[in-house]
């Protein structure tokens, strides 16, 4: 005669275990959970294994740091070069910064208070 196995009181979790995707209850946890779900869905991180996620996020972080350092280091110089080119295109010669201030009406030293602007330049 076949014996019937006793049914366990507690069933094991369903596979795949999707507890990480459940919406949390607190407001701040919901905010970060939504941001995490958006980030994982945008960059398809939900399909990757944990080591692949770490590798990809590290790669993104390094690229972000390179771009930010380039902006901080080289963007001010690039703005200066672009300003000089704009002056060349506007006036046909490489001019001084004071030409821009005079064209805007701030560079005339005969008016009161405008001489300080030229001294700062």
Give me some keywords for this one.
121 residues, mainly alpha, 4 helices, transmembrane helix, Ser_palmitoyltrfase_ssu-like
Characterise this structure:
It is a multi-pass membrane protein. The protein has 121 residues and is mainly α. The chain contains four helices and no strands.
Question: What secondary-structure arrangement, pairings included, does this model have?
Answer:
Layout: H1 27-42, H2 50-91, H3 97-104, H4 115-120
Keywords: Endoplasmic reticulum, Membrane, Transmembrane, Transmembrane helix
Subcellular location: Endoplasmic reticulum membrane
GO cellular component, one term: endoplasmic reticulum membrane
Order of secondary-structure elements: HHHH
- Taking Cα atoms only, what radius of gyration do you get, to the nearest Å? 32 Å
Largest sheet report: none
Q: Give the number of helices.
A: 4
How many structural domains can be distinguished in the coordinates? Answer: 1
How many distinct beta strands? Answer: 0
First-to-last CA distance: 102 Å
Query: Unreliable runs, pLDDT <50, ≥5 residues?
Result: none
Inertia-based shape: rod-shaped
Quick synopsis:
The protein is mainly alpha-helical and 121 residues long. The chain has helices at residues 27-42, 50-91, 97-104, 115-120.
């Amino acid at each position: 005669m076949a014996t019937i196995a006793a049914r366990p009181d507690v069933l094991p979790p369903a596979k795949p275990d999707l507890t990480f995707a459940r919406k949390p209850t607190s407001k701040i946890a919901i905010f970060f959970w939504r941001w995490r779900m958006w980030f994982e869905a945008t960059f398809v991180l939900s399909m990757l294994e944990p080591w692949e996620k770490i590798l990809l996020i590290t790669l993104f972080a390094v690229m972000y740091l390179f771009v930010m350092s380039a902006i901080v280091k080289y963007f001010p110089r690039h703005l200066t070069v672009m300003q000089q080119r704009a002056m060349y295109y506007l006036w046909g010669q490489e001019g001084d910064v004071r030409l821009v201030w005079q064209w805007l009406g701030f560079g005339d030293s005969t008016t009161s208070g405008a001489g300080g602007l030229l001294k700062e330049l």
